[in-house]
């Protein structure tokens, strides 16, 4: 019985011996693997991200170009008021336009008074009321200004617009002799656009002070205003405006506490 017990203990020891050997061999293997990892060269740090190039400044927008005066659609009949003008003042109408229900005649500046007088006096037109005089500025164009007259007939209940194209120095005859109500309207066109209206009874500024420089409704008018000197670049205005602040306080006056 004792022999059997010793024999069984020997078997158990033999069974346990390989397990211990496996465990013992696993530990050195783990150490060797850790050594390999520690011996491996460290990876180089990732290259620093390159700064993004600054975007190029955008080019300034092109000055707005004047829209085309739309011709009447094909097959549309010219109204009697326009036909009467074309026949009554030969060669004065350069173009006839129709847009969103409005008829416009573009006329030569030197024939403006002939056209206006006919439109007021002829029975087929009878435009006895000048409701508005205005202008539009298109700097890229040689004749940069469109001067527009809006006429209405209280008897015939019809409207028409008369347009002339002129440059900065081109004279535009006043229509106050035909419609006295155009007096202040033409003054506003002169004040805001600088259109050279001639033979006006009292041509002077109406919205801006008399000493004001420049004309605010022109598209090239400086955004910062004219200041004391007429400058076209708004950055120049900022520099001029900031000069007192950059110079600092002046010397204290007598009796003034510093």
Describe this structure in words.
With 258 residues, the chain is an alpha/beta fold. Among the domains are: 80-207, NADH:ubiquinone oxidoreductase Nqo5 subunit (Beta Polymerase, domain 2), CATH 3.30.460; 212-238, no CATH class. It is 32% helix and 18% strand. The protein has five helices and seven strands. It has helices at 2-39, 80-88, 112-121, 182-193, 234-247, and strands at residues 93-99, 102-107, 129-137, 145-153, 158-166, 171-173, 196-198. The strands form two sheets. Strands 1-2-5-4-3 form a five-stranded mixed beta sheet. The protein has a two-stranded parallel sheet with strand order 6-7. The radius of gyration is 45 Å and the shape is elongated. 17% of the residues are buried.
What are the defining features of this structure?
258 residues, 5-stranded mixed sheet, 5 helices, Beta Polymerase, domain 2, single chain, 18% strand
Oligomer: single chain
Arrangement of strands in the largest sheet: 1-2-5-4-3
- In whole angstroms, the N-to-C terminal distance is 120 Å
Largest sheet: 5 strands, mixed
**Annotated CATH topology of the domain at 80-207:** Beta Polymerase, domain 2
Counting DSSP H or I runs of 4 or more residues, the number of helices is 5
CATH arch. level architecture of the domain at 80-207:
2-Layer Sandwich
Taken from the alpha-carbon principal axes, the silhouette is elongated
**Would you tell me the overall average pLDDT?**
82
Helix and strand sequence: HHEEHEEEEHEH
Q: Measured on Cα atoms, how large is the radius of gyration? A: 45 Å
CATH superfamily label of the domain at 80-207: NADH:ubiquinone oxidoreductase Nqo5 subunit
Spans with pLDDT under 50 lasting ≥5 residues? 19-23
- CATH domain class name of the domain at 80-207: Alpha Beta
Helix content: 25-40%
